[in-house]
Design goal:
This protein has 384 residues and is of the alpha/beta class. It has eight helices and 18 strands. The radius of gyration is 21 Å and the shape is globular.
């Protein structure tokens, strides 16, 4: 059994763990990441919509502030990562069109538009004819829509690869193995023991293992994050050159009460997603999930049935009790969380990296991240 020590040990090498490690190393911390496959995780399945406006939900106005703060940082964040690594991240400022296919969907979209305007957000109501003028492939039955030029997209797989490269350049040490048990010494986080028996010690430990964050043996109950897996199935199609451009921007809709979106990449890939299923740790791609996505997408854009289907995947989003992330110190000294991002992990990558670097350096969360302290759930549980 060998032992190694760092200033900061990040458990989990998905995009949230990677951005935390990169920003920590930039602050001068000797940083390590423990993960058998850095750059994996939910980002491999995510569509990469940066949709602070069209993803707005009732009761999530506090989260909206964090989402907008992160969206504002994206252009500089992408420029910095690209300059550093030479990676093209597939970042597109192409905007989003949310459309309605029937009267009920139209009423729902009108309500969303009102909420967006009340929240000070920019979105423009369009007639069905205007929607089809923007996106000629849309079905003739489209009844209206919202044009949101500020909701962009990125390719999460490219983002993950670039973050691995950025971490390597910054001197982050990768331990490509599972963290098997969390270690506490004298009532303080001390590190982990890995599957190969190595002890990895650290001055501060960040648990950023996505939906797995609540399952690491050895984490005390009062510091264990209340995250759960929420399954999402996603399809990838290829747009042959003769059909290009198939779509000019991200298109999304509610079809019979289910969300569906189509995200066109500049490389000809078209991502269709995403189911939302509370099925525990199941990551099976099901015929029903694929059928529902294709059926709903076909109602929106009939021409998709002509495109080659190149990939089907299922992944697990880390859900939290209030659908918002857990960022910063826990009840256990030395243990911090960066998890529970649910459907906003890709969008929140820049602001999470900045917030975690700040709290690791100062002990305090920056203002925009304070509502997302893990301690908010402990406060809820206290008797009156």
């Amino acid at each position: 059994m060998s032992s190694r020590t760092s200033d900061v040990l990040v458990i989990g090498g998905g995009i949230i763990g990677l951005v935390t490690a990169w920003r920590a190393a930039q602050r001068g911390f000797a940083t390590a990441v423990v993960d058998p496959e850095p750059g994996g995780g939910a980002a491999q399945v995510a569509a990469g919509m940066l949709a602070a406006v069209t993803e707005l939900h009732y009761g999530e106005q506090t989260l909206l502030g964090l989402n907008l703060a992160s969206a504002r940082r994206y252009p500089d964040f992408v420029a910095e990562l690209t300059d550093l690594t030479g990676h093209d991240l597939g970042y597109r400022q192409c905007g989003t069109l949310a459309v309605a296919l029937d009267a009920d969907d139209r009423a729902h979209l009108r309500e969303l538009h009102a909420l967006q305007r009340q929240s000070g957000l920019e979105s423009e109501w369009l007639s069905g004819r205007d929607c089809r003028r923007l996106e000629p492939m849309l079905a003739p039955g489209v009844r209206g829509g919202l044009r949101v030029d500020g909701d962009h997209q990125i390719d999460p797989r490219r983002l993950a690869r670039a973050l691995v490269a950025a971490c390597e350049r910054a001197g982050v040490v990768f331990h490509r193995v599972w963290a098997e048990r969390f270690q506490v010494v004298r009532d303080r986080a001390a590190g982990v023991t890995t599957a190969d028996g190595t002890e990895l010690g650290a001055g501060q430990v960040v648990l950023a293992a996505g939906s797995l964050s609540g399952r690491l043996p050895g984490v005390p109950d009062n510091a264990l994050p209340p995250v759960r897996p929420v399954k999402g199935q996603v399809l990838r199609l290829t747009v042959p050159q003769r059909y290009a451009p198939f779509l000019n921007r991200t298109v999304r809709a509610v079809v019979r009460g289910s969300q569906v979106y189509l995200v066109p990449r500049e490389n000809g890939e078209l991502v269709i997603g995403a189911t939302s299923e509370e099925l525990g740790w199941d990551t099976t791609v099901t015929a029903g999930g694929v059928y529902e996505l294709l059926r709903d997408a076909h109602e929106l854009v009939p021409g998709i049935t002509e495109l080659p289907l190149t990939e089907t995947r299922a992944g697990l989003r880390p859900g939290s009790p209030d659908n918002a992330p857990l960022l910063g110190p826990t009840e256990l000294p030395g243990l911090l969380l960066a998890t529970g991002h649910y459907r906003n992990g890709v969008l929140l990558t820049p602001v999470t990296g900045d917030a975690m670097a700040h709290v690791l350096a100062t002990g305090e969360l920056p203002d925009e991240a304070r509502p997302f302290t893990p301690r908010r759930f402990a406060l809820l549980e206290q008797p009156a």
